[in-house]
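Sharing a chain and its predicted structure for anyone who wants a worked example. Both blocks are below, sequence first, tokens second.
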Amino acid sequence: MPSKRRPALAVAAIASVLALTATACDSSDDNTDAKPTASSEQQGVDDIKLPDNLNDKLKNLGIDLDQWKNGAWNKWDKDDWLREAGDFINPIIKGLWKPDRMRDAQEPDKPVDDSDIADDQGVTDPDPQPVPAKEVASPYSSNVPYAGKVFFDGPEGSMVCSATVVEDPAHPGKSNLVWTAGHCVHAGKGGGWYKNLMFVPSYNDAGKSQAELENATKEELAPKGVWWADWAQTSSQWIDNGAAVGGKGAPYDFAVMHVKPEASGGKSLEETVGGALPVDFNAPAVKSIDEITATGYPAAPPFDGQKMNQCADKPGRLSLDAKQPTMYRIGCTMTAGSSGGGWVANGADGKPALVSNTSIGPSNATWLAGPHLGPEAKGVYSAVSKKFANQ
């Protein structure tokens, strides 16, 4: 598709761009001191194994670990919300993510007002034609073994995103790295790190319906186990400028998590799921990419968040700010909940690699956009890999 320079996107697109995170309860910007609800209270909290130096770090931040385990994690006072890059903490709370919490972590977002996006400049191609999302054939673990869902808690309740197992250069064949969107780990400008971040590879592997999952066991929903993030990192641009809706910070909306199993075990995540994707930080220009495949678990209607879906399309370009990198854009009908899911294209060697992740899309669910992974993304990825290189 030939490029076309336009001073702004169509007004309809500007008015409807949103970050594709799904929440489990009504949102409210004023809900900064939320109390645990019946669905979010942990039950039978087990002892947890802390990452190195985490207990001391919690004490330095004025956080008592026992209080944290007993519900203090659910306090969201903005003055106390851990925000800076080095503030990430995520103690494992065994049994917190029960099947009902995982199933219920879904609800569509609010569309954005015009004021949430500056005048769009730069190279933007015409809106792509919608590509209907198609459910991945089950078992998902046989067809897209590296894909899964991220669950976490925020001020608005239990939330959900999608994510991808990626290779770790420090541990070939034994990666514990997961790629997702920045807004799936950190609220961006004015917010902080989300809590209780957890990855479930091949969620609902058998592709069962919502009704069939009503009494599902944790093993049915998480056949490859539950993996808690013991570290997460996103771009400084997302932390400083990111917005929950509206596209601000979207060109830098990526994150890498290092995870560990909730139940102790000897195998890495990559060994457990049977594969991991390389990340291409030198992906070719849009015109040189024949097709990108986006994978995710869309949760907003007409989807319910329980099934893995994909869209494949030739990408176009989307510029939200002429001073920031132009994003990839594809036609796709996946909705909220698919955010963070991997975008895969064949590299110069003909092998599939991760080239982006779902970041934003319009409220009418006709397309998705994801960041071009450049030096900032490589820096985040390399930093997380090096942090755990000797473990």
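Comments welcome. The CA atoms of residues 142 and 274 lie 9 Å apart.
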